[in-house]
Queue: 3 jobs
Job 1
Amino acid sequence: MSEEEAYRTVLATLKEEAIYPYNEDEIQVVKSVESCINCGLCIQHCPVVAAVGLDRFSGPRSIAVELSRSPPEYWTTADVVYLCTGCGTCREVCPKDVDIPEIVNLIRARIFKHRPDLVPMQLHAADAILVEHGLAFVPWEDPEEKVESRNMRLERLGLRHVPDQVVKGADVLFYPGCQAEERAQEVKESAKIILDHFKVKFTLLEEMNCCGLPATLLGDDETALELALKLKKKVKDLGVKMVVTTCAGCTSNLARIAERDGWGIPVYHMLEYLVEEIGMVKLTSTFKQSTEEKPLRVTLHDPCHLIKHTSRITMDYAGQILSLIPDVEVTESFAHDSCCGGGGLVSYHAADVARAVMKENLAAIEETGASRVVTPCPLCTAQLEDSLFRQGSSVEVDDMTVFIAQRLPRKG
Amino acid sequence: MDLEADIVVIGGGMAGLVAGIRATEEGMKTVLLRKGQSATAYSSGAIDVIGYLPGGTVPLASPVEGLQGIASMFPLHPYGLLGFTGAESDTVSKTIIEKVRTAVSWLKATLLGSNIPFFGDIDSNLDAVTVLGTVKPTCMIQETMWPGSLMLDEDSVAFFAGVKGFPVFNPRMAAQVFLEHQISNKLPPRKAGHHVLDLAPFGNNYNISSIELARYLDNEDNLSALAKTLKKQADRIGATHIALPPVLGFNRARENQLALQDLTGAHVFELLSFPPSVPGLRLQRGLETAFVKGGGTLLVGHHAKMDSPKSKIVKKVTAVGPRRNLKISTKAVILATGKFIGGGIIGTENGIRESVFDLMTVSESFHIATNVTPQKLTNTLALSHMGHPLFGSGLSVDPQFRPITKEEIHAAENLYAAGSVLAGYNYPAEKSGLGVAIVTGYMASRNAVDYVKGVSA
């Protein structure tokens, strides 16, 4: 057998032997594990460990250590790897830059391929929706009902309706993400109001599709890639100069795939777009004319996908914007940057863990005495709203895009 | 994305935060980049200034004594550099001591403002007790770690209390080591007891971490539960002093100490422990709070990248976050990236490298170390009072704390360095880590502020 033949024979048996060679991105991640000094700081800072203990979730280091075994026995971590909320705290505290959140994704991807029986069935269900509809949620069956739900939300929040528009060659593509498209429609509406207010030439997608983050998180890399490439084509066809989104998870994931797949245009969260593109001067003069006059004490919640997966500067922007709005007083919560438990698809199959992680935030929010939590992510909003409601709290939750739209000076 | 700053500090450990806080106090617009947790967060939470002279085996009675020795024998030690003021040589040691005193007292006041009271000053070294039962000289410890009259009072009785399932601390061994050491030195106490308490925080009595215990004891009900069992056991042997592992809480450590003293009638204190320790994290958080309160911009999760390291003035620093690069224009830069844990200095098979600007590195004896492999800078004995010269390697700086090049001039006129990225002191052997970080951070910041004020005027 020649060397070439031997190589091909081995290559053909890899799948059978459950060996999935790393691609280039993954090799970087795997190499980062080599610098682990086993200090255990990640375990001590992990919000899931703090909430449910090491018995239930053995912590970031154990996941990273499993991987450093040769050959890596990914499936041995299956009982814990799906409990990671992907908040990124471990990577942020690590003095050695070990990329644990990406290691979690990498392990999940291999379990999904080789031992799908170990993937929680709720995640298989979520995957089926992604594959069938290209969205994280089953879309509305009746489009009229969707419109009705949207109108109810607009009325309740006192927001005007800016019609959807698809314009080729617009400056900005507004990408709402699945949550704002299908569920929290008020966020999508508010973003359109803001863009319209500042006379931005914007467009929506003709047909919305998921950015692929949920597929990545549950380990279905193929679907994730397919969705990402589909989205790239749509973005290219529209010929926009930049993408703006209101979802924290979409921000970090779109930024990642845009770089990986060479979109050649920047991706902004609405907060970044407002501060960097609209500019503080314009924002200042805008909010001077704000007609909303009820004084309000709010506290901010920092979405992990913005602060730990994009950049901490985003929440500085949030604070800067809020400081311009009259009669809004911000009180910082001691757990403002602690995971809400809503990440990593944990709430799909282990709602008790997600809720336990959230507990710390709830106590901290109550302690601020604020009557409202503002957060620039519709998923955090939903998670916080649900938990505060269950607790019987009177604290309300607003997505920050909605909060801003409500406080723009009314037209006409 | 662009930001503007007067001063950019790269590194968020002790040196960087001291530099950053001082710069904000001087009215500078300061941006501080911190990547992971620093070595300060790992530390025991005690502040060493100088415990042994370089190469010395006898613990120094006071940092002042050590600084005098350094002034006369080690002019290139970071403390020694403080004396290069052009003044008469007989005032050098006074100058050094005054500068160290200023920086250390300032820090003590700053941390008090963050509700972390410290005990001690540079006029004497304290004997701090560790979780191993050993005693080490240190300059300042958190009030909660002060053992009181334990080693002075002839009638004192020590009681070491551990927690079941908390692997960091074995009270039986600690009591034995401590007592043997004290007796051989003819020092009190002459009696020590030990006990393992079954606290089971959050339901578990195994595999408990120090942070978990600290969180548990931040709750008042849990603390009174601890007080009850603690009192019962301590009374059994008539303990006058109770030594606990350093887990007395994050937010209420001092209050918890006082409450436990009230409830047990004994002096309660925390031992020093290995990394990562709760008092170290308290220290880190206290410093960060002071920096942010003072108006500084803290960018956690960002590391610095340089576009043009060779220019004579550093005008821009790129802060690289998970998905964003921020371009920061600045008038001065303070490099406080730490050594091997912080990642400021990297040792590879090719030599010793500075990670941000690729500056010239030197060994402890100030020979160029850019091509020296780390192994060459180690001693045959793993543990000895000499330590390993490797820890003394780093950057060589001018008396203004600006890193210098092979040509013996500063690498850039507005680039300063502070903390363990500097060469010329062996912190594990000398017990001088945080002290040098404080003083060099303080002085580098002063020089950077003067520079910025000079170019702005």
Job 2
Amino acid sequence: MALFNHLTTALFDAILAPLGHGRPWFDLVLWPVLGGITALLVIKAVSNQAGITRAKGRIQVHLLEVVLFRDDLRTVFPATAKALAYNLLYLAYNIVPMLVMIVPMTTILVQLVSHYAYAPLRVGDSVTMVVELDDAVGGVAAADVTLDLPDGVVLEAPPVRTAEGMVAWRLSAQTAGDHLLRVHAGASVEDKVLSVGGPARKVSVLRTKGWEAFLYPSEAVPASGSPIASISILNRRDAPLGPFPAGEAGILAWFFGASLLAGFLLKDRFGVTI
Amino acid sequence: MRHNLLLGALVTMAGGCSCGRVSLDQPGVFVLGVDGMDPVILRRLIDEGKAPNLAALAQAGSFEELGTSNPPQSPVAWSNFVTGMDPGGHGVYDFLHRDPETYLPISSATAEVNDPGTFVKVGGYYLPVIAGDDILNNRSGTPWWDVLYSAGVDVEVYRIPGNYPVPSSDAKTLAGMGTVDMRGGYGVYTWYTDKVPVATPGHDLKGDVQLVTVEDFDLDGIGDTVKGTLKGPPDLFHLAPGALPGESDYLTASVTVSIDAAAPVAIIKVGDAQAVVAQGEWTAWMPVTFDALPAGAMALAGTVRFYAKELRPGFKLYASPVNFAADAPPQAISTPDDFATELADALEGPYYTQGMPEETNALKDGTFNDDDYLSQVGLVQNDASAMLDVSLARFSRGDATFFYLSDIDLQCHMLWRHGDPKHPAEAPHPAFEADSASKHALDIERFYRHVDGLVGRVRARLPPDTLLVVMSDHGFQPYTRQVHLNTWLRNHGWLTMNAGKSAGMLALGDVDWSKTRAYALGFNAVYFNVIGREGQGIVATEALAGLRTQLAAELLAFTDPKSGRKPILRVDSGLDIYHGNRLTEAPDLVVGYDRDYGHSDESTLGEITELELEDNTSRWSGNHLMAPEVVPGVLLTSRPLRTSGNDLTDVTATLYAWYGQTLPPELRGQPFLTP
């Protein structure tokens, strides 16, 4: 996971935001279209196009049967059952291309979210940062976890160490910048970036070694032997994206909607049946 | 102008309005409604140089008393201002009305709902099949903002009292006083504690007290975790149609508090939100959702903030009433619906949507002390102040804006006991608390000075020719003696208890209605037990006139044995003082108390107590539910007035006249200024 995140992040950091993070429209249009085209190419290459065409045809035939003979239940029921069966067959034909596409498409989506979902916090905002300890590693108690603050970030309240092995701090950033917060857990040290003020840019809200690391690749995954499982910033601000829906869910909805639309509009040009 | 001027032009061309069109090049109006600002206190502060901005406003224009409504209750007074009518026209006679059939108190804010709709029960859920009556605002009449909007004026109305449920309007309005919390009440806080608070004798706790245990999850000998629940809206899909929710009929969210072993600091989790809070601190607003249907099919969004009163050694945590999430309110609190969201965007976060958010209940309960209360009021002030800035930023020449400030009213209610700002030489209030009085004696004055600062900001930012009006709905007086009016009626033969009863409730079978001629419900209202109107009426309609005169005379003769004073200054017949289409709902008599006196809470709700009069030892120590002449409001304008002796409806008439609108016959007031 760490290597995958490292490579994909390096790649997308190089190619995303060619106009800067203040102009998200370019990537938010380009990448769903590329995603849609990629999906068409994958479907064409790995799916049973003839089978899909046949299944769609059979579904249409049986739906027509239902419409034409709607007064004859002895015809309607079997026709409906057959339409459903061919629907399942149609879905089955799409499983392979979906499996092929799921990783690249999700990777693109995750990278778009990393770059455009969040805005830096405002100068003076209160921020809660939470460190969760890794039970599997052990050896370090919540009492052994401390935090070094850089200039420009101050502690607003003493840390809270919970019985479940979580440590939380309430901080306030007094100056703009990408501040590096250093967490000590026993002998281990992990850093977390806190983005405050300044222009639109890539903002990391979670650094984790769990499965969520795939969804939040902006910062390196903590080492497998680190007693720290995750470091998260709880206060998150959606970056304004103009006419596009904002936030994680907004980008997700936009990406899938726009990819689907692109795929439908271009399928004939690519000679693909979907 | 904030909205499209084309709209005004189109309306004019269509000829759909008989009223005059507004000149597109004329000064606007900004009305600052300061609930409870008293002319005597303000005059003193101006004279002492403590309200320089209000003094400058008075100097440039005018400052005089503003006649209030009868009775001088905020919902009544603001309805007078909103419609230009008296209660006979708008139908809001008191905070509380009564159901004449059952003698039960009912809210004056909503119209009666006769048909709850038709439901089918599926899998334990009551699902609506046929819609019932909508819950509508009880206020009749046309709000001035609708008239101005129709005339093409860009109108914005912020936190207007009595506008919930929100009547439809094309103008931008945000409901204020009377807007409920997510439970559907006027604000129930939650108090998580490891020790049950001791209620003042005779006072029922208003908060939802949850007795919790501080568990020691990590077995280190130090308690670290508290679990509780937060009640949200009633679980309507599981409630029988029309049924009132019981204690367990609310949707809930879980609350977990993890306390640090070394320091008095904790992390609070409610739903998916978490916040770190040290002892004595408030959290920011925390989002919380309540699932009315499974799988998030209907998630109702609210916001809550916590106050860590004590984390160690005891545990006392306050949760505010759950407010509607301003960015996605599950009920309409504004017109258009998205105006509330627009404001949340402008403020970059949630704000108090509850109508009267100052936490007077916790202070009355004793779970808050004055310092806790004032810290909470500070949060409300910050909200209002930020929203005022938004309203000013949106104001352009020619616009009409109303902005409501609650800074003074509730603080006068709660803090008067520390020192009477109006009669400093008076004996201490019965609720005087010596240990905190010296610290808080000047709090009310500080709130006036805060408002003065806001007025300064408003004056500095408005276009120079804008008419600025600073008004209040009523003034204030001390409230030192409680009158149990139903008890007085019992003692004087107007109300008869059932055999064996000397105390009880009107609606709970304690009263012998076959021998009862009159009863009190609400803060100033007395009703006769009329045949054909009341459920068990015995008074003939023909006898009413004589009985009104007789009872009024007896009430005016009523003397307080402790002071020798007469508690009641005036008694009016509803038929004499009100005008309009809703006269049949008017109280038969409206009781106007002298300063120091007022209806007890018990009598207001229809309780008959043992005592007729007693000292008011409650922290609710200042009041205005008296005779109107005892508690006039204030009127300050940025231009000299043409007439004096104005009342609330004259402000309405002035708004009409300022924009050239014809005064409708039902409007009671007359303009005191024109452009």
Job 3
Amino acid sequence: MAKIIGAIGTSHIPAIGKAIAGNLQETPYWKNFFDGYKPIHKWLENNQPDVVVVFYNDHGLDFFIDKKPTFAIGAAASYQNSDEGWGIKTIPEAKGDEDMSWHICNELVDDEFDITICQELRVDHGLTVPLQLMWPGNNYSHLKVIPVAINCEQHPMPSPKRCFDLGRSIGKAIESYDSDQKVLVLGTGGLSHQLEGERAGFINKEFDLMCMDKLVYDPQDILGYSIRDLVEIAGAQGPELNMWLSMRGTLLGDIKQLHHNYTIPISNTGAGTLLLEQK
Amino acid sequence: MSYLNNPKPIAGTTLFDGKAARKGYSLNKMCFSFNEQNARDEFLSNEGAYCEKFGLSVKQKLAIKERDVLGLIDLGGNIYYLAKFVGMLGLNMQDIGAMQTGKTVEEFKAMLAKAGE
């Protein structure tokens, strides 16, 4: 059966993509942030996943609000990045794993998660920036990617508990998939930030650190927040914590935290990095 | 019960809910089009005509003309689509953060840095 070997929580903000394009990794502003990925690179080198499931949100590249899925999963042979309108450099396509995607979709619907299944899906910085962070130089062509998009753009948004349960269901689906593939899960986005309104620039360091801590061994403790709570406590984009909760949900076995980092501010956010290994 | 039934406002924050999504549909649809270079070119060559093409309201057209981000949010703009509008104009999230909070960009960045202390 396929095996989830670990999971990573990471920021996906566009400024990171621009910093990579500008080769700014060693500059004072960026150094602590990018240094936080070095232990992850080493772990990836040693563990070599075959498939990467990426929880992200589409910030208006493929999905518009004419039709806005709450949960959407890619089931394509490949995923293209594309112009987002404000100048972030696009990256090469990522390969998909149609067979595993359909298996996950079949099991999810059977488990009463009625997801939107996408045979064409353009992926934005929410997915591409994490790929660039994990595999510098865009060296991800040996991997297959399965995108899972969670609505974080239009209210109502799914609850933290629902997103954790979605992760649980995906974890079970992967562990029941007849293959010997090693799977890595990425939870992207966050942590606290607010882009819009008079409260723009709001960040809550204390809350971010508490969530990163709880997420590892006591995720149940942070599933009781409503989306409104997250907006109030962690800013208008605080609900992006949902992708981290889905990521954590996929880990059904014993886990160990191998690495964590937190840099504030990166652009307008508190940027968390977390590496969990599943035994 | 939906969390959106809580009538208490969150200071300095507008939730992009069904009401905003309806009010801002044309505005956001126009901003969504800016994913395409030819749409950006068309807008920049004649802003008024491009707004007209998408059926923006008089208030929305004025707020676009004045680059009034807070006004656009109040008129149903969604920050992710507005990001494509302001990004096309060469502004980043610190620039529009400063615009929305009445600070200079340096003051806004200093506020972000302070949150890390």
